[in-house]
């Protein structure tokens, strides 16, 4: 979804919040359920490794219950666009960063995206299957944002990670996001079901009751993305992944697709609107030797101008029939 651009107000920077964990020996009265909860908390404390230098320097900590993680970030000059506000790619990168830092804070791997001990032994990795981001106000250069994240089970084949983005100085919610992750074998590149061993490793750090960044029943985050049927109004053909677009999972990083989607939107739309909502479905990974076509068509509905981009990916020197699609309609887009 694109909306008319409104002036951006700078945000004041305040001191970092004070947080502390309850002492390990703290006890309270209660029944069997409380004893079980206390046992889980003790297991979390025992499994947390000693903080690294990077963790001590970050402006981020686990919440006292150990079930979510908050971190603050200053918007830097190279993270903003021509209007001096953060780009949507910046927001997506911060979401990815705070998710990885959350995983490291509970003892998961520092050499991959939140891989557990069992996953490393079996050469398994997490890959993004779906991402939905809503931005209500873009932070400006020098503003401070606070992002809270948590993960939870999502069926038998994946996990879910949610985020809440706030203006640090006012506490105002300026964005929300949710995502689905699935497990892939690093060697065969095939998806794999989440085993009970892996599930047991991360579920102790997840909320015991569902907690959703988008609790609304009619949330756009739940809507399917329709296929692109109309001829493309505009396009950018032959986009080639740079070396810097590849991540630790040996494929194009999920944030890169956002830039590809925006490449084919006409400049007059970019100049007069800003992206408010985007949904991406990742259906096939792209490698360094793939080329990407970004296609955009128009839809008109009610009073809103709706953009629908599509990405067509085809390996170089091979038939263009091998391709993946990116569809964006209303407030959403899908890529793979």
What does this structure look like?
This protein has helices spanning 32-47, 53-57, 88-105, 117-121, 196-203, 254-263, 267-272; strands at residues 2-4, 60-62, 69-74, 124-135, 144-154, 158-167, 173-185, 191-192, 234-239, 273-275, 277-281, 290-301, 304-315, 327-329, 332-334. It is an alpha+beta fold and 336 residues long. The protein has two domains: 54-222, Hotdog Thioesterase (Thiol Ester Dehydrase, Chain A, Roll); 224-300 and 322-335. Strands 2, 3, 4, 5, 6, 7, 8 and 11 form an eight-stranded antiparallel sheet that branches. The protein has a three-stranded antiparallel sheet with strand order 9-12-13, with helices on one face. Strand 12 (290-301) and strand 13 form a beta hairpin. The chain starts with a strand and ends with a strand. The relative contact order is 0.14.
Sum up the structure in keywords.
2 domains, single chain, alpha+beta, eight-stranded antiparallel β-sheet, 336 residues, 15 strands, globular, Thiol Ester Dehydrase, Chain A, disordered C terminus, 31% strand, three-stranded antiparallel β-sheet
In round numbers, the mean pLDDT is 80
Approximately what portion of the residues adopt beta-strand conformation?
25-35%
**Inertia-based shape:** globular
The DSSP helix count reads 7
In short:
The chain has 336 residues and is of the alpha+beta class.
Write the layout of secondary structure elements.
Blueprint lengths: L1 E3 L27 H16 L5 H5 L2 E3 L6 E6 L13 H18 L11 H5 L2 E12 L8 E11 L3 E10 L5 E13 L5 E2 L3 H8 L30 E6 L14 H10 L3 H6 E3 L1 E5 L8 E12 L2 E12 L11 E3 L2 E3 L2
């Amino acid at each position: 979804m694109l909306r008319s651009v409104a002036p951006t107000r700078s945000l004041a920077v305040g001191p970092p919040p004070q947080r502390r964990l309850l002492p390990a020996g703290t006890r309270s009265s209660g029944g069997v359920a409380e004893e079980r909860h206390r046992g889980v908390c003790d297991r979390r404390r025992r499994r947390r490794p000693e903080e690294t230098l990077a963790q001590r320097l970050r402006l981020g900590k686990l919440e006292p219950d150990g079930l979510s993680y908050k971190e603050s970030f200053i918007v830097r000059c190279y993270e903003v666009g021509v209007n001096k506000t953060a780009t949507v790619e910046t927001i997506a990168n911060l979401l990815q960063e705070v998710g990885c830092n959350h995983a490291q804070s509970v003892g998961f791997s520092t050499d991959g995206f939140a891989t557990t001990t069992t996953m490393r032994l079996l050469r398994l990795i997490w890959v993004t299957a779906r991402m939905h981001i809503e931005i209500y106000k873009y932070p400006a250069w020098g503003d401070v944002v606070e992002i809270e994240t948590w993960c939870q089970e999502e069926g038998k084949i994946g996990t879910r990670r949610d985020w809440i983005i706030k203006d640090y100085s006012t506490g105002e919610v300026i964005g929300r996001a949710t995502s689905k992750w699935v497990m892939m074998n690093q060697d065969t590149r095939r998806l794999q079901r989440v085993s009970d061993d892996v599930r047991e490793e991360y579920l102790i750090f997840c909320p015991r009751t569902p907690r959703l960044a988008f609790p609304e029943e009619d949330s756009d985050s739940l809507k399917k993305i329709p296929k692109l049927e109309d001829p493309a109004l505009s396009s950018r053909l032959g986009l080639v992944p740079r070396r810097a677009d590849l991540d630790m999972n040996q494929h194009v990083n999920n944030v890169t697709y956002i830039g590809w989607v925006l490449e084919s939107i006409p400049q007059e739309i970019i100049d007069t609107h800003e992206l408010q909502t985007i949904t991406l479905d990742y259906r096939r990974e792209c490698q360094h030797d793939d080329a990407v076509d970004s296609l955009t068509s128009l839809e008109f509905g009610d009073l809103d101008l709706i953009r629908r981009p599509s990405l067509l990916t085809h390996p170089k020197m091979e038939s263009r029939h091998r391709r993946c699609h990116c569809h964006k309609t209303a407030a959403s887009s899908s890529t793979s």
